[in-house]
Amino acid sequence: MESVGMLSRILARSAAPRGVIVRSFRTSAPAVSAVTEGPERDVKNFPRPVRPIYPGKVRMGFIPEEWFELFYKKTGVTGPYMFGVSFLTYLCSKEIYIMEHEYYNGLSLALLCIIGVKKLGPSISAWLDKGIDQYENSWEEGRKNQLQTLQDSIEAEKKEQWRAEGQTLLFEAKKENIALQIEAAYRERLMQTYSEVKKRLDYQVETQNIETRISQKHMTQWIVNNVLKSITPQQEKDSLKKCISDLKALSAVA
Fold first, then answer.
1. Whole-number pLDDT of residue 31
2. Which residue of 80, 105, 158, 238 is most buried, as measured by CB atoms within 10 A?
3. Do 79 and 71 contact (CB within 8 A), yes or no?
4. Could you tell me the pTM of the whole model?
5. Strand, helix or coil at 192?
6. In angstroms, rounded to a whole number, what is the distance separating the alpha carbons of residues 107 and 34?
7. What is the Cα–Cα distance from 174 to 187, expressed in whole angstroms?
């Protein structure tokens, strides 16, 4: 019986997907709070089925306990045993089940199996359970490593998102710097335009001033030349004498 339970446990755990830890569960329905169900599921009348790890109870090594409980309501406690004895007697008396040499070989083989299970079953079960626990520990370690890797990936992703937000602020600062550079270039070009326009206006003003001075000088020279041309030699001599006499008068007064 112990070997049957041990083999059932091994098969149940080997059937589970790799990376999933198989734990011992009761054969009854699981708690509703442990499973997230939709509002339309009737978990009370139709609970979620659970695959048991250990087999159900048996009697005499191979007869399920449920078969005996089925007879209890009709025949009482001794009913299943009486039915078994009667049915076996019927098979043997009608020679439906013939007790030939293979029957006795089967009895001896069954006896050897029972002795082997009773003597070697606990040690083999403990050894196999130890191996299963090692598998569970390795799977649990792998699961923890995978969870840690995923957690590290999540933290790295959050850090990258934080860096991306910093890049957004950096982009805004770069935009402001570019706007300032554009404004400085605009003002510089505006000043260059002002300087060039001023130079051209100053040139025009200076040109007009030069033309005015040239015109004045030409006009003065023309007037002087015409006045000199209009003075006769006699007038020049009289003017010279007048100047000399005026100088003498000034010198006498001094």
1. 44
2. 80
3. yes
4. 0.35
5. helix
6. 48
7. 20
- The separation between the first and the last C-alpha atoms of the chain, rounded to the nearest angstrom, is 166
Angle value at C-alpha 36, between 34 and 40, nearest 5 degrees: 130
Compute how many other C-beta atoms are within 10 angstroms of the C-beta atom of residue 53: 19
Contact status, residue 54 vs residue 24, Cβ threshold 8 Å:
yes
Residue 172 in 3-state DSSP? helix
Rounded to a whole number, what is the largest CA-CA distance in the chain? 196
Report how far residue 163's alpha carbon sits from residue 157's, in angstroms, rounded to the nearest whole number: 10
Question: 71 CB contacts (<8 Å, ≥6 apart)?
Answer: 79, 80, 83
Q: Is the pLDDT of residue 44 over 80?
A: yes
Residues 86-127 have pLDDT tens digits of 999 999 898 888 888 888 888 888 888 888 888 888 898 889
Neighbours of 6 (CB within 10 A): 22
- Tokens 């169900």 locate to 37
Coil, helix or strand at residue 56: coil
* DSSP character string of 103-165: HHHHHHHHHHHHHHHHHHHHHHHHHHHHHHHHHHHHHHHHHHHHHHHHHHHHHHHHHHHHHHH
DSSP annotation of 35 reads: S
Residues 6 or more apart whose Cβ sits within 8 Å of residue 136: 13, 21, 22
pLDDT above 80 (res 67): yes
- Token duo for residue 61: 């090594």
> What is residue 52's three-state secondary structure?
coil
Tell me the C-alpha distance between 64 and 57, whole Å. Answer: 6
* pLDDT at residue 254, as a whole number: 61
**CA dist., res. 249 & res. 254, Å (int):** 9
